[in-house]
Amino acid sequence: MSYNEMILQTKAVFGELPDDVLPSLEQVIVLRSRVEDHAIPFADFSVWTGKQRIRLRQMKLKRWTFGEDGTAERISAPSLTTFHDWCKSSTIYKYALAMIGASTITDLEAYRAQIEHLYSIYGDHYGSFVTGADELLRSSRISKFWPVGDKTKWGVAFRAAAADYSFLNAQVNCNVFQVTRDNNTSQPGAKSSLHSTPHSTWWSNCGPQLTLGLRRLRERAISSAFPTKPVHLAILVAPALMVGSTCA
User: Fold this and answer.
1) Where on the tree of life does the source sit, at the highest rank (predicted)?
2) 56 lies in a domain?
3) Cα atoms in the Cβ-side hemisphere of radius 13 Å centred on 200
4) Residue 162's closest CA among 90, 218, 229, 228?
5) Is residue 62 part of a domain?
């Protein structure tokens, strides 16, 4: 099926769609090539946009800037700037995978709902940790859930990944805890940032589970006469239920 036929078929099923939510010919070719090669259909959302070439050109220009003294300074290439960017890239990615027959829209929306749920908890302040967890899963861990050899089952993998909420939650929790701990230790005499910052979502959501989990582990260790093993914070956090979409 040609690219134009894919577009027509997609619009026939989902109605008239704006051009900025549909993948470009180049995006479809790259993604289909990866699927045909039995590789992970990963897309870098920092450039996976409706105007991909413009985005790439902006990234190249932003690699260098000029300091106050007029000297050139190298800077990091920009990644996702807002969660809204992630939502737009995710929509294009969703239609691209559906167009090449690698997934269904429903499967991808189930996965997307989990990312949106994490964002609804942590918000803009920790939004980069949420999108970072998504990128790690889509670039590597997703292969764990893929029925090897079946090019049409990547949607199954994404739905299974959505059910594996603990992994995504663990990635965000680790980063948030490290940041709040570092902030706390870098300000002597200040109150713990876990309690005092306006973005104390980590502690308010995970603190009670963490305290209860540590207490149970300590009681278990005493009763069995074995020392308690180090505990990863994320395993003490109960998976949360999915909520409505936060993408506008």
Assistant:
1) Eukaryota
2) no
3) 12
4) 90
5) no
Q: Which two tokens stand for residue 51?
A: 């105007």
The domain total for the chain is: 1
For 212-241, write each residue's pLDDT tens digit.
444 544 454 444 444 434 333 333 333 333
Record the tokens describing residue 175, joined without a space: 């980063």
Q: Is residue 63 included in any domain, yes or no?
A: no
Phi-psi region of 141 (alpha: psi -120 to 50; beta: other; left: phi over 0): alpha
pLDDT for residue 244 is more than 60:
no
Confidence category of residue 206, pLDDT binned at 50, 70, 90: low
pTM: 0.68
* Residues spanned by the domain of 205: 1-51+76-248
Measured between alpha carbons, how far is 97 from 152 in angstroms, rounded to an integer? Answer: 9
Residue 38, domain member (yes or no): yes
Name the residue type at position 187.
Answer: Q
- Report whether 63 contacts 77 (CB < 8 A): yes
- The residue type of 183 is N
34-74 residue pLDDT tens? 999 999 999 988 888 766 555 555 554 455 555 556 565 55
